[in-house]
């Protein structure tokens, strides 16, 4: 159930391949496995056990037993301590987790290390919340005593994507465990490895068996079994809007499990004439090309006010020539490969659409090299609002740029897609910034920066970008249900409230 894997740095480690259910490594009941591909060279790294419905059933049974049993006796303080310990163990293993993440996902080592550090930070942050969750006393009338309790929901199914494997693992586990739930988490089929390595730390951190179950598997089988499971009380999902819809439907058709969704985006990055143009260029670069454009909040629609449009496009083009594309294990690399052949093909097809629809290719627009899923950073200018590349989530290193004139016009254009995950405004004028933060319908608005995420700041979508908020105190409510207790202290007339 383990394979010895050698990373490109020469590090040898034991990669778990099994399903982590009830605190143990087990084989898939139906005997299936699937291959894990290295996106840098398209070679098979290893094969992992593939969970199907019977494995999901076993994981749910383990999570239920833990929820009703040992986990319910653990004090909030001790829950917090276990989470702090898990965060510490993640930090102790940061170099291993970083290399596994780069190997499987293709992100560069610096970026992967940053992800693991933030993942550990997130688990620690939520560990701090574990003993700060409480209800209220609510006065209604004499002769009564009323209070609320914030209780965990129960067994939670969590389905995560491949763009930030460890970070999404932490964003999901943190608030669910801090609030006293138990979980069955399915990783993305493209990137199962780092979560399995991190699962080896769960027992060491002291969690009782069955509290955190981690399975590898496919969306259409294991994922569907989670979202339709009668024994799962809540499902949390991050991924595409299309899959989010499917999950919500199957939650509705099964046991009306609670649903939170963190979905796609087509976020506007708005740059005014008075912005510090060099800073705006740097932020626009990070906004779209960070993580190879595989970021739900990517600043994929860049709008530049007409006075600086030509200068901006020239400087932006110049700036991205410095983005080194190549091997994620090379320290000079900024952009590694896209995660899979499927994603590579999807992105290339959007690029072809952009060309066919008449947008100007300022640079890129083709694959990089002849092996691995590499795409050159691509800028399209003169993109109109109706073009596919301005409306749909590409999820790759492709920026679409257009010109605007006024605050009123850009507020309307900024809100002109079904998404509403994020937006950014670059200006030195506080009034302009605040006017737009009012008008833009997005869950996060950055001013003079981009992609500034932190586990203490709530994150999530307006419109079709999602339901609920992850991170911060807000995420706790996704995993809690309120119970009201109303007590008659002995009077006879308390039923008819005044
Ligand atoms: P996806 O289908 O949304 O996958 C995300 C997760 O959902 C994976 O774990 C996936 O399993 C699972 N899943 C798929 N179908 C399911 C189903 N019917 N029931 C339950 N779970 C299911 O995303 P994708 O196909 O990998 O990527 C497609 C597009 O989604 C991208 O181009 C991008 O636009 C968007 N996306 C957005 C985010 C984000 O952070 N918001 C992340 C990833 C992708 P498998 O691994 O087997 O597919
Ligand atoms: Mg892979």
TrEMBL record:
Q: In which pathway does it act?
A: Alcohol metabolism; ethanol degradation; acetate from ethanol: step 2/2
E.C. number: 1.2.1.3
- Reaction equation(s) it catalyzes: an aldehyde + NAD(+) + H2O = a carboxylate + NADH + 2 H(+)
- Return the CDD domains for the record: ALDH_F1-2_Ald2-like (cd07091)
Q: Where is the Aldehyde dehydrogenase domain?
A: 25-485
What are the catalytic residues?
262
Q: Does the keyword Oxidoreductase apply?
A: yes
Please give the Pfam families that the UniProt record associates with this protein.
Aldedh (PF00171)
User: Its family?
Assistant: Belongs to the aldehyde dehydrogenase family.
Q: What is this protein called?
A: Aldehyde dehydrogenase
- Species per Swiss-Prot/TrEMBL record: Ascodesmis nigricans
